[in-house]
Write a structure and sequence with these properties.
CATH topology: Metal Transport, Frataxin, Chain A
Strand content: 15-25%
Number of domains: 1
Largest sheet: 3 strands, antiparallel
Number of strands: 3
CATH superfamily: Hypothetical protein
Strand order of the largest sheet: 1-2-3
Distance between the termini: 17 Å
Number of helices: 3
Length: 76
């Protein structure tokens, strides 16, 4: 199994939209997404390379395993 690596925010944006999140708003470089049933919104900074800890924190909020994430991201 591969491990999570930094990716561009645009690719993570495609991942979030694929799993059913909706883009709500953007304030400065932070993009806010929501999905029914989440305890809090997903916040993604529009960085050229999104750090692994941000990806992992957002996966925890979404309730998605690293294995599921890697399967989806490799098909996008």
């Amino acid at each position: 199994m591969s491990k999570i690596t930094p990716i561009a925010w645009k690719k993570f944006d495609r991942f979030l939209l694929y799993i059913g999140c909706t883009f709500e708003r953007q304030k400065a470089s932070h993009r806010i997404y929501s999905k029914p049933g989440l305890s809090r919104p997903i916040v993604v900074p529009a960085y050229k390379s999104l750090p692994v800890f941000i990806i992992k924190n957002n996966l925890r909020v979404l309730g998605i395993s690293q294995k599921q994430y890697l399967e989806i991201i490799n098909h996008l």
